[in-house]
Amino acid sequence: MHDLKSILARLRGRLIVSCQPVPAGPFDTVASVVAYARAAESAGAAGLRIEGCANVAGVAGASRLPVIGLVKRDLDDSPVRITPLLSDVAALAEAGAAIIAVDATDRPRPVSVPALIAEIKRHGRLAMADIATEDEARAALAAGADIVGTTMSGYAGPGPVPKEPDLGLVALCARLGAPVFAEGRYNTPEAAGAAIRAGADAVVVGSAITRPEHVTAWFRQAVETAARPPAPVLAFDIGGTKTLAALVAGRAILDRRVMPTPAVVGGDAWSDAMAGLVAGWGGRYARAAAAVTGLVAGGAWSALNRETLDIPREFPLAGKLAGILGMPVEILNDAQAAAWGEYRFGAGQGRDMAFLTVSSGIGGGLVLDGRLRRGARGLAGSLGQLPVVLPGESVRLETLASGFGMARAARAAGRNGDARTVLAAAGAAEAWAEDILHTATKRLAAAIAGLQAIVDPERIVIGGGVGLAGGFLDGLREALRAHPEVMVPELALAELGADAGIIGAADIAASAP
User: Which tens digits make up the pLDDT trace of 142-161?
Assistant: First the structure.
């Protein structure tokens, strides 16, 4: 009789290696499986998952680790493959398996799950139920299973197999109070660690360790994909005054067209204008994306500041563009798209970074741990929306420190002109313009210091027409001197200029599944 408590004590918080070679492959021999098992044991694995009675017997005789045994069969009248018959259970027990795994999914089968579990118990072995849902886990435990494994998640339904492991199912099963082994697509160390944090007692890893055919294919595909010239993507940059369409390959702009943004976004005239903007480009792209100012969530577009661009609330931009182009369209906030462009091809390559665009408004984006962070509401990095408390009121940062804000301050000082006028006058040492620029950079510097304290990126990249203007970055660095050194970031000018948004949006669309 195998004791669950003592075996779990050996396996809890540990790695189990599934030594199952590709059927009919060069490693599909008992000697190879035993060699894999011994290598796994010497590297610190705590348990082994072995398919086939001959392999189980060979490994059980060569290793001191507990063996999870199973038999795979292709049946004519059932989709169940893992240990479907009572005779399989008896043979695995005789071969030396300490734990016997059975498919416990709710599908047509030759033998019921309770009958298989009872047979396992009759032979004094522990029963592991390979399930795909929480309900199947509950049913298997009620039938007497000792362990549930998430092995079948993604493999028992009609849809395609997911690429990622099912951490959600691990968390749900962990609440049931029985031991949970995470299994299925745990092919990176990071995913295995995440499974333990999600509540798994142990993690089973197979292909990434013991199927060199699969591992070779993963690396070959990555290398060949990286070496292949990128396919062009159609990317839009839709702003308050102009709309840009471009064909983008990597960081290269192959072709571009610009038109004034129609006054009414979403109407028939707008749809006709968007279709006309890309006329003749059919067949040159297979994916599409759009970078837009404002809030993007679930393919819907809303204004964050109606002074910058007034659009209908939750305008279904993704659906509208898909109808025009005849294909799905990836929609992103323009500053978040630019953040990704600078991360992939510009001033932030390979670093945790924040991106700030200072132009007519102020936008931003965050790339952390190699991922663009959009946030739960699509707001991540939107520094321009930060409230600034003034005597008697609270206003947005971009109302005060953006190009529009500087132009408004100039008018209040009796001066005509836009932000470029202010910047030129400040460069000429005109006191009124220097005061406006100093006030704007002081307020922006305070927000940037706060961003550094909260997110602590390695670099903050500054872009936008105002941000890239001569002397602006120097003024911003000077304003940051008023803050503690630990909150003063490394600043860098954006390298992709006005194209950062379309380049970033195109790259995200190109890499989408």
Answer: 999 999 999 999 999 888 99
| Nearest to 399, CA basis, from 390, 391, 337 | 390
Q: Which residues contact 492 (CB under 8 A, 6 or more apart)?
A: 347, 348, 459, 460, 461, 462
Residue keyed to tokens 């160390």: 189
Conformation bin of residue 370: beta by default, left when phi > 0, alpha when psi is -120 to 50: left
Q: What's the pTM value of the predicted model, to 2 decimals?
A: 0.68
pLDDT at 308 over 60: no
Half-sphere exposure at residue 439, Cβ-oriented, CA atoms within 13 angstroms = 19
Q: Are 72 and 48 in contact (CB under 8 A)?
A: no
Residue 405, sorted as left (phi over 0), alpha (psi -120 to 50) or beta, turns out to be alpha
- Residue 154 zone, left/alpha/beta (φ > 0; ψ -120 to 50; rest): left
- Tell me how far apart the alpha carbons of residues 413 and 338 are, in angstroms, rounded to a whole number: 34
Give the tokens for residue 46: 């705590």
Burial 233-253 (b: 16+ CB within 10 A, else e): bbbbbbbbeebbbbbbbbbeb
**CB neighbour list of residue 182: distance below 8 Å, 6 or more residues apart:** 149, 150, 165, 167, 170, 192, 195, 196, 198, 200, 202, 203, 204
- Nearest CA to 45 out of 204, 170, 235, 183 is that of 204
Kindly state the percentage of the chain with pLDDT values over 90.
Answer: 82
Query: Strands 353-358, 459-463: parallel, antiparallel or unpaired by DSSP?
Result: parallel
